[in-house]
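Section 3.1: Structural characterization of target chains.
Under the original work plan, the team committed to producing a structural model for every single-chain target entering the pipeline before any wet-lab resources were allocated. The record below documents one such target. The sequence was received from the expression subgroup and is listed exactly as submitted; it comprises 182 residues.
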Amino acid sequence: MRPFDVPKREEVNEKNQQIFDDLESKLGFVPNIYATYAYSEHALSRYLTFANAKSSLNNKEKEVINLVTSQVNGCTYCQAAHTQLGKMNGFTEDQTVELRQGSAGFDSKFDALVKLAKEIAENRGRVSDEILQSFFNAGYNKANLIDVIVNVGEKAITNYLHNLTEIPIDFSEAPELAEAKF
């Protein structure tokens, strides 16, 4: 059993309480994973600054990366959260499942992106020339490549946090994959 409960507002420092209030006003609740970051005096604000920084990728592209990275890292919390966010950004549930499996037959540009992100996550940044060339052939550039790497790393942090703490998932669970590919 993991010794992690989700901290309540009164159990975190004043700076994190202000962040909780802001999240509550924007989202209607404080996601358990964000509350868990608040065990640290600084981690929640550092993470939110990192996660919300400007990027050459749009929100839909970021969700492609979030879904496959969370699948590679076996993070059920992030799979659930990003399935919901993916749908809010225009993906169908079936498309979120396909993305978690590492492909996007419904869109060639997303297919190149998801394959690159999957390979980065699986191989710790080492990708084949073929996958990299497909990414560039799909219309992405070197700035996009850097932002993909940053996005994979950002999502891995939260994946690891949940995998270690096993805090409760406060989103609808993501559909199970018919065939585990990871």
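Residues 9-51 form one domain.
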